[in-house]
Specification:
The structure is a single chain. It is built from two helices and five strands. The chain has one domain. The chain is α+β, with helices and mostly antiparallel strands.
């Protein structure tokens, strides 16, 4: 599962053979969540409140980059790194 971003201890990844809706995986310590790219909501799992706020803000900032990576993953093409939060 390719890592596309790493910030504040939060690892963002996407699977090549994942299912719709377009989403990514966010993990922090022992927590993990699937986050819907278009709606910016958690589909499954959980993150601590602070990290969840960071991930959702990051999603808003990088929605276009994330959708582009989703399409690349569907084509089994290399994914592009996405900048983290500062």
């Amino acid at each position: 599962m390719p890592e596309i971003s790493l910030f504040m201890g939060i690892r963002i990844t996407m699977y090549y053979d994942d299912y719709n809706p377009p989403h990514f995986h966010a993990s922090y310590a022992d927590y993990s969540a699937l986050v819907d790219i278009q709606d910016g909501c958690v589909l499954r799992g959980m993150l601590p409140n602070r990290q969840l706020k960071y991930v959702l803000a990051w999603t808003e900032l990088h929605r276009d980059d994330l959708m582009q990576n989703w399409e690349l993953a569907r084509d089994n093409a290399p994914l592009n790194p996405v900048a983290g939060l500062m």
